[in-house]
Amino acid sequence: MVTTVTSPSLLEELRAGGNQEAWQEFFQRYAPMLLAIARGVGLRSSDVDDAVQETLVAVLRLFRRLDQPFDRTRRRFKAWLRGVVLHKVRDVQRRALRAQRLAEGMATCIDPHAEAERAQAVFELEWQRNRLQRALDEVAREVDPATFQEFELYALQGQNVDNVADLFETSRNAIYIAKCRILCRLKETVARLEQEEG
Amino acid sequence: MRRCPPATLLDRYAAGALPGPDADLVESHLVGCAACADRLERLGMAQDLLEQLRDAESARAELGSDLAALSSLQQWFTTTLSSVAGRGGPWMEHE
After folding, report:
1. Would you give the distance in Å from CA B64 to the centre of its chain?
2. Contacts by residues A83-86 (CB-CB < 8 Å, ≥ 24 positions apart)
3. Quick check: A165 contacting B, CB < 8 Å?
4. Per the count of CB atoms within 10 A, which of A92, B44, B58, B62 is most buried?
5. What range defines the domain where residue A159 resides?
6. By the 8 A CB rule, do A23 and A14 touch?
7. Which chain B residues have a beta carbon less than 8 Å from that of A49?
């Protein structure tokens, strides 16, 4: 999925009222990550949708209430989103556990501290993956499509360099140069996105 | 650039730390010199970043395979947005 708006401007657009396009952009950017988090912490597939929907509703509410620009609170957006999604996940987990206890007539114990730590780690992993994917999408839009395909096939998918060079009727040297250029650009983009997060 | 660049220059090129004109010079040499292009590749730059990228891409592919879940979620979200545009749906009442 390709994103088109930088994070601070998207958040600010949502705060200012957010048209359908901006909200769909937000969905494309964060919903797959929220799904991955809900699954990553071990929610049953029937509970995953509940956790994600409740999180998205909380986001909609936040932006309805926000009365100051988000650009000074970017760091807090990540922390806030982490707090909300992990809280919603925990709620859904507790409800599911209660239902299971009732159905099975037994006590099922979880260690809340260990669960919380695990959930934090899942969030950080998915946030980092999301940032990398956004950076990759951004670089893909900026460079020549053939160069990016060469990079994908050789560097990401691990195909043989000579096969890729033949496929694009270019040299092995050109494939190495393309890989180097794109990695440098990616590093810069990831660093910029990190900075934008605060 | 006819002569092969020194290792330090190639390192800086690989790290994206060379200014534009110098990077262009090194690159024009790399296009025609297989030995230097191989050296560049052997530097194994940004291996961590590459590993993370492969992991992120594989996670995205895994999630993308469950298009039904994303699609039904998106449908729900679009409906919810429409109710918000109509001056607040039921989800606002629990605030």
Report:
1. 17
2. A84/A55, A84/A58, A84/A59, A85/A34, A85/A37, A85/A38, A85/A51, A85/A55, A85/A123, A86/A116, A86/A119, A86/A120, A86/A123
3. no
4. A92
5. 143-198
6. yes
7. 69, 72-73, 76
Instruction: Indicate yes or no: CB of B95 within 8 angstroms of CB of A61.
Output: yes
Residues A147, A134 share a domain: no
A151 and A121 in a common domain? no
In angstroms, the Cα distances linking A7 to A14, A64, A169 are 11, 18, 38
CB distance B46 to B15 below 8 Å? no
CB proximity list for A84: less than 8 A, separation 6 or greater: A55, A58, A59
Single residue among A121, A142, A163 that ends a domain in this structure: A142
- The Cα–Cα gap between A94 and A102 comes to 12
Characterize A22-35 residue by residue with b for buried, 16 or more Cβ atoms within 10 angstroms of its Cβ, and e for exposed: bbebbbebbbbbbb
Contacts with B63 from chain A: Cβ below 8 Å: 32, 35-36
Taking only the tens place, the pLDDT of each residue in A8-57 is 688 888 877 778 888 999 999 999 999 999 999 989 888 999 999 999 99
| pLDDT tens-place string over residues A158-197 | 999 999 999 999 999 999 999 999 999 999 999 999 888 7
